[in-house]
Q: What sequence folds into this?
């Protein structure tokens, strides 16, 4: 299976997914007057580390929102599985479901088969994190092939504050050619 690298400074692929609670979202489009976007890709209901990470995301959400950052979490889970997991999280952010293998590949994510997760029913995306600026360009990207290697969300919030503040006119990190 092939995987494309999503380059820092590039736009996030145009991916629209259904939301828990109804409607749909374009992953690269912030809402509610926010101008930056944080997209968290999590493995799914079968992953207890994902539940813990999403609870941490809920806790840091006010800090992210204060920085002008909208947040969405996405997985390949079905609506039923995502609903069941989110009952434990009670997210204050949007949750999308149904990420396809082609969409996972477009985001440059690692993909695992059902045998790589307890109670996984289908191939799923390994963790990914994308921070988009007001132009929709990827400012921060973190891709992992395992659930226990994820960035600390407090540091992500601090980094966004730094990128939006003293480093707002600097080029995107990792784009030197």
A:
């Amino acid at each position: 299976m092939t995987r494309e690298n999503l380059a820092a400074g590039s736009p996030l692929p145009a991916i629209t997914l259904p939301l828990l609670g109804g409607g749909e979202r374009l992953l690269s489009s912030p809402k509610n007057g926010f101008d930056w976007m944080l997209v968290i890709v999590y493995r799914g209901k079968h992953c207890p580390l994902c539940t813990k990470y999403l609870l941490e995301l809920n806790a840091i959400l006010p800090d992210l929102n204060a920085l002008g950052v909208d947040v969405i979490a996405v997985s390949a889970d079905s609506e039923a599985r995502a609903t069941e997991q989110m009952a434990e999280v009670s997210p204050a952010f949007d949750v999308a479901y149904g990420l396809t293998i082609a969409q996972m590949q477009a985001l440059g994510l690692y993909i695992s088969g059902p045998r790589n997760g307890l109670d996984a029913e289908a191939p799923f995306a390994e963790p990914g994190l994308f921070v988009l600026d007001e132009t929709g360009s990827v400012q921060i990207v973190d891709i992992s092939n395992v659930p226990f290697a994820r960035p600390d969300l407090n540091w992500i919030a601090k980094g966004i504050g730094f990128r939006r503040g003293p480093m707002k006119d600097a080029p995107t990190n990792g784009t030197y050619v």
